[in-house]
Amino acid sequence: MPGNDTNRWDTARTQVLARWRNILERIQRQDEGGALELINAMDEFCEEAIRSREAAEERSGTRCVFCESFIEHGGCFGMLGEINRAVLHRKWKVAHGLATTNIRRLEAADFSALSGSMPALKAAPARSPGGKRPA
Predict the structure, then answer these.
(1) How far apart are alpha carbons 99 and 23 in whole angstroms?
(2) Are 82 and 98 in contact (CB under 8 A)?
(3) Which residues does 67 contact at the CB level (< 8 Å), separation at least 6?
(4) Taking the mean position of all CA atoms in its chain, how far away is CA 11?
(5) How far apart are the first and last CA of the chain?
(6) Were 70 and a residue from 75, 85, 121, 134 both cysteine, which residue would form a disulfide, CB within 3.0 to 4.6 Å?
(7) Is the separation of the CB atoms in 9 and 118 below 8 Å?
(8) Tens of pLDDT along 80-134?
(9) How many other C-beta atoms can be found within 10 angstroms of the C-beta atom of residue 45?
């Protein structure tokens, strides 16, 4: 039932947003261990993808193949790898920017057209070959 799916994903998004806001606070405090712990935790979107996988007729593949964000945006691992590197190298400004971008992307997620899958999330701004965001 689409309304039920919308409520589940909205609830998951609320919880994921709270975690990312906590990550941002830890980055602002330059709390490397605390930030990394939260950045790398399996989140509520993963849990919803697991539920979708369990409800699907064809269950082959990992939970990630049931997460539309993973499919449409190249997965969460690229962004997580980038923010992990920034925190580990104590590039707090870069980490802050990445966390803020992810929060904005999550806030903009559209849950209105769910058909039992993960809502589409807007892609983060593109990076130039040098790794910098266009001005």
Answers:
(1) 7
(2) yes
(3) 45, 46, 48, 49, 52, 118
(4) 14
(5) 43
(6) 75
(7) yes
(8) 899 999 999 999 999 999 999 989 888 887 666 655 554 455 544 444 444 444 4
(9) 24
pLDDT of residue 130: 47
Tokens 């593949």 locate to 61
Q: Running DSSP on this structure, what letter comes out for residue 65?
A: G
Instruction: Name the pTM for this structure.
Output: 0.73
Q: Alpha-carbon distance 8 to 121, whole Å?
A: 16
CA 78 to chain centre: 10
**Residue with token string 């593109």:** 126
H helix intervals, the chain: 2-28, 32-39, 44-55, 68-72, 77-88, 92-107
Structure token pair of residue 122? 């807007």
